[in-house]
Design a protein that fits this description.
This protein is mostly helical. It has helices spanning about 5-15, 20-35, 45-60, 65-75. The radius of gyration is 17 Å and the shape is elongated.
């Protein structure tokens, strides 16, 4: 694995152990839960907007897991 790529993932892992990351994930999970309430949807435009919000929230919420999986794959390729 290239040194710059290894450094990138090490920085990500350092971020994930910070208390602020844990707080952010908890806040985003609460936000996701409130957005996921379909009883508040008024029309299809609102539905698609909420779907986009949920897609982005999922991307962030899965960031740690995704980085761990990719890093493991990169290490196995060496």
């Amino acid at each position: 694995m290239e040194q710059s790529l290894r450094h990138y993932y090490e920085n990500q892992f350092t971020l994930f152990i910070q208390p602020g990351w844990t707080d952010l994930v908890e806040d985003l999970q609460r936000l996701k839960d409130s957005i996921n309430d379909l009883s508040l949807v008024t029309d299809t435009q609102d539905l698609y907007f909420r779907k986009g919000q949920l897609d982005i929230l999922e991307l962030i919420l899965r960031r740690k897991q995704t980085c761990e999986e990719v890093y493991k794959q990169l290490e196995e390729e060496e």
